[in-house]
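Thread: "does anyone have the structure for this chain?"

Original post by V.I.:
We have the sequence but no experimental structure in hand. Need at least a predicted one for the grant figures.
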Amino acid sequence: MRRRSLLIAVPTGLVTLAGCGDDDSGSSDEASGSASPSASASASVPAPKIVDGPLPAITAGTKFGEKPTVAKGSGDPSKNLAVKTITAGNGTTVAENDYIQANYLGQIWDTAKVFDNSYDRKTPLLIQLATSSIIDGWRYALTGKKTGSRVQFSVPPTWGYGKEGYAEGGIKGTDTLVFVVDLLETFNAKSSAKGTQVAQDNVDLPKVGTNTDGKAPSIEVPKSDAPKKLVANYVIEGDGDEVAAENTVLVQYKGVLWDSGKEFDSTYSRKALTSFSLQQVVKGWSQGLTGKKVGSRVLIVVPPDLGYGDSPPAGSDIKKDSTLVFSVDILAKM
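Reply from O.Q.:
Generated one for you, tokens below.
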């Protein structure tokens, strides 16, 4: 099992399809594939002053995408948030509440002890820059930066793990943390699939819209009997890596009922993306998305035995033995 990130607090807004609907109150640290220490910084803590140093030297792996080696901090670290753009990218500007995909290394100022890094895992972090999703130092340091950038910053306890520290990661309540982050991608509520349209020529299956403007695609359900077996077809085929059964994915999706065509759940309606583990969703989703490429839009038709069967989520519009129809844009995976 891969080592988990130490960065985040309890993720919010995760829909695991154990309870589809408009209620976003459920959360799961396993759904994000990350540890869930509570970040001590909160809305009651004022925003930090951002300064440009001091920061320890990057002594090796100095290029974007390379695993960096960072020297031990010299002298006392700043009590503020020290941030320096090492390499300026020219991609999309990151905004607060965006999801980012990034490689990173984190170490302790006083000792240069590396407590976490994604380079060795060969799996970039996928996380939302939102309160209670990640330590505040990341939110403040990375908001406004562009993808393709390498950013180095130091985080004092106030905007990290506070006076309690994080014992599991070997972080004391007095430790200032140093990070190097390579920003790969950023995603928001307007993100869509990117790829090549695939013919939808089966008249007995729903037809999904192919717009990629961030708006919800149409789903036209035919007046025929619902299929008895799972359907998982490309609408738009991306060119990214294939999704594995153990991955966490970031998606836009819309779900309607086969019988009525009525929408029962949608990230577009909530204006919020969703991230979840394929090991924690209904079988129709885990089977339907496994093997599909990142960047794709997929039509998934879920028969009752691979959905909710006779136990639909309480308070939802899903009835017993409903066939569910989804349009799913796979934006990223971890």
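V.I.: this helps a lot. Helices lie at 29-32, 136-142, 267-270, 283-289.
O.Q.: and The CA atoms of residues 308 and 321 lie 7 Å apart.
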